[in-house]
Amino acid sequence: MVDLPASIDATLALLAEAGYIADRPLATVLYLALRMGRPLFVEGESGTGKTEIAKVLAQTLGRRLIRLQCYEGLDVSAAVYEWNYGAQMIAIRLAEAEGEGDRQRIEHDVFSERFLIKRPLLQALEPDPDGAPVLLIDEIDRTDEAFEAFLLEVLADFQVTVPELGTVKAVRPPIVIVTSNRTREVHDALKRRCLYHWVGYPDAARELHILRVKVPGVPKKLSEQIVAFVQALRKEDLFKVPGVAETLDWASALTELDVVALDPAIVSDTLGVLLKYQDDLARLDGSKVKALLEEVRSELKAAE
Predict the structure, then answer these.
(1) Is residue 2 part of a domain?
(2) Is this prediction's pTM over 0.70?
């Protein structure tokens, strides 16, 4: 287990150690969340590295990563706990077969911890010899308001209530990262329990740095062209512009194809790595791709 970073610069270095190239505002709010023991609510477009923050923290701090992937209809039985009803029924039948007639004792036995199936939120509150785990509540905007309301107790007091057993409270609160793609607004009551940060698309310099760290085999000229083209693409009127994840995927794909420089044909052939909607692909016909590439080349030449 690694100690929590003692400064903003140490937080930046901790993230960089695992290849996460953060800007200073993110490092600052993350440092404060770690020092203050507050959850961090990270919002932004998909593919900008929100989920990766929790993964990198778990890796660099030597903590267990517990992930709760949110979805529509998520409830307590999937997020917190449920009882192993099959095993409980077997235990009841065995007790009856052995002549056990004390109903109160049977009920106490079958609602003991050995029949409890612990889901991510309950697991995150348990003591861990490696230190408090990192709890990732991913894509909270996919759940409904009822589940948000339930989370208030967890994020405010780091405890949950199991009616048959009582209240389970964390001895050492987990490090909590909550992410949202902002497909809907999350209630203010939940946000107030967290520190907040918006993760936007990086500028060209930081995206180029990220690409060189994550996909080191890309030729220098090609990496510059890739980043410049993606940056230009984000200015277009698209349904879903590519995130950093798509930039890295595209760089890897072009490397697999032994591409050393972008041309209209290779860009058109590989656009499906960057764009995920047919309408967006249709907007970028051959002439548009050629125009964007010419713009990119002019910008890169002017910057030399």
Answers:
(1) no
(2) yes
